[in-house]
Amino acid sequence: CPQVASLVDPNQLFGLSTAEPGQFFVNVRFDGILGLGYPNLAADGITPVFDNLVNRSLLRESLFSVYL
């Protein structure tokens, strides 16, 4: 069941990538890719995880941030 921090949506659909072209992912350690794009950019019409969390009122605000 997909989880972001302590937020869980057991009905979230997700895609699985078993191979990525090019060298970028060969040289970088990562645990996965989390799509935070707009729903109209989503593959196969799947609602992105952030939008599902907002739609299900699991977030206090429709806002996220990234710390680099």
UniProtKB/TrEMBL annotation:
GO biological process, one term: proteolysis
Domain (Peptidase A1): residue spans on this chain: 1-68
Domain of life: Eukaryota
PANTHER family: BETA-SITE APP-CLEAVING ENZYME, ISOFORM A-RELATED (PTHR47966), CHYMOSIN (PTHR47966:SF13)
Gene Ontology MF terms in the entry: aspartic-type endopeptidase activity
UniProt protein name: PEPE protein
InterPro entries for the chain: Aspartic_peptidase_A1, PEPTIDASE_A1, Peptidase_aspartic_dom_sf
Family listed: Belongs to the peptidase A1 family.
